[in-house]
Amino acid sequence: MKRILSLVVAMLMIISLTACNSNQGSTDKETKKIIDAAGDEVIIPAKVDTVINLVTYGCQVMVGLGFGDYLVGINVDAIESPWMAEMYPRTNEIEKFDQEASAEILLRANADIVLVQEAEQARDLRSKGVTAVTFSYWSLEDMKATIKMLGDILGGDAVEKCNKYIAYLDGNIALVENTLKDKVLEKETLYYINGVSNKGLYKTAGKGSTNSACAQLSHTIFATDSLIESPANKVDSEAILSVNPQNIIIGGKYQHVLYDELMVTSEWSNNTAVKNGHVFKVPMGISAWNRYGIEIALMITWTSAVVYPEYFEYDLVKETIDFYKEFTGITLTEQQAQYILEGLTPSGEKEITN
């Protein structure tokens, strides 16, 4: 009898241990490896459901591509334009984090993955138990690689969506090239005024910047390429005035203020762009189209259309509506599309007037 009892106890212990091991295995998440924007191999969950994105333009990219529902945390400065909340109202409800949020804070938030801009920050966070991935780019080629990585991270339909966007960007580049290469015999000059903050008419971008790359792809000569090199963003007034740019674009939420300033500044009164009415305000969507969001694909065609309207006929309103419907999942009215093209808010007003 004792032997039978001992055998029963032993069998029960084996069954119990087997069940424990089985349960433990079911709670372990499967993983996959990705290569992040810094070239680091990072092990992440095979299925990612929640993301904290500490990169300003990274948040805008995710919302722009229709991936907002993954976000449980965003950079405190991510909402640069009222159109972001208009197109994705939940933006206002998502928890906001400082770009340098600590590992302790991020671990407490318990997201599947955290996207950061700097490689060293990502490595430091990983050493402290946070699944952190570098999400960063400073060129169009790097942008495409990073968006492809985003698709790999999210998996499923996101892979196809990211690849579709990359194909759209490449398609717009090819469209402009094929349309203008035999028509624009002498490229026009283009000067960019950075209106993200109200820092005057000489805050700009230089050679090596995304703005310069877009200008070149639009068959224009970026006026500051020969004057400053990225990351420098301030140009000498006499130097740029001597270039006498034929076109001027102003981006950012202070664009209307800077436009008004430009029109009444005496030293610019004889400038070719000012005299010919070739001063343009960059469209403002989820972010300014010339920034680092997905609208940069539209920036290339928009620039070509406003600088060379006689050669590049393009229905900007229709393309704007089609773009946001395809990638963001939002159906805009023609009036809303026009507001975006004019750099206005969803209510048709200037965001900042003084």
Automatic annotation (TrEMBL):
Highest taxon, organism lineage: Bacteria
Signal peptide: 1-21
Gene3D superfamilies: 1.20.58.2180, Nitrogenase molybdenum iron protein domain (3.40.50.1980)
Keywords annotated in UniProt: Signal
Coiled coil: none
Chain ranges of the Fe/B12 periplasmic-binding domain: 50-311
Keyword Ion transport: no
Name by which UniProt lists this protein: Periplasmic binding protein
Lineage summary: Bacteria, Pseudomonadati, Bacteroidota, Bacteroidia, Bacteroidales
